Amino acid sequence: MYSLPNILTISRIVVIPLxxxxxxxxSNVWAIFAAILFIAASITDYFDGYLARARGETSAFGRxxxxxxxxLLVASALVVLLAKPDMLVTRLSYIPVVxxxxxxxxxxxxxxxxxxxxxxxxxxxxxxxKTGFQMTALSMLLLKGVWYWGxxxxxxxxxxxxxxxxxxxxxFQKSLNYIRKMNKAEKAAAAAAPVKKKVKPVSKPAAKSKxxxxxxxxxxxxxxxxxxxxx
Length: 231
What we know:
This protein has helices spanning 4-14, 16-20, 28-54, 60-83, 94-116, 125-142, 150-192, 212-230. The protein is an all-alpha fold. It has a single domain, classed as Four Helix Bundle (Hemerythrin (Met), subunit A) (Up-down Bundle).
């Protein structure tokens, strides 16, 4: 758990509060510092995976924490942009920001659901490209007040939003396909299960009344007496 790759992953989460401080501190020096922190944290996203594979330190904890750290880091920068709209060039840039935030929430929910049923959701190559565009765009937008890279940053943010939507749809389709397979398997299991037939209770013949015999005997005696009298 405390391997170097995992420490790099955890560091991305640790710097998030410092990035949030850029909302309250209006200083070019702090803006540069926050952007440098964000860029450094973004770079660790590459090195933690590389080192884990090179050192043979891949772990289930690392695979779980890595996408969570990425989403928290990106979401924190997006919230900063929403809180400080002067970092955005146009109001239309709210659209990609909201798209990215909604997708991250959706995918996090899908991951949690699939983890409960023990199904993995590996990060695709397109998702890695999406993360790269997101982090590059956000780094430029965080520095908009210092250097005018906002225009390029917003273009990259729109590209990231498109990739975000595509990868989110892919993950959603994968989850939906798995749910359909689960439903089919449950229906097949229910159909294959033996149907228990209801056995009707066998009705017992009514017991003859013991009192009926003496009554029948009396009737026979009376009929015999009548016949004798007639004779």
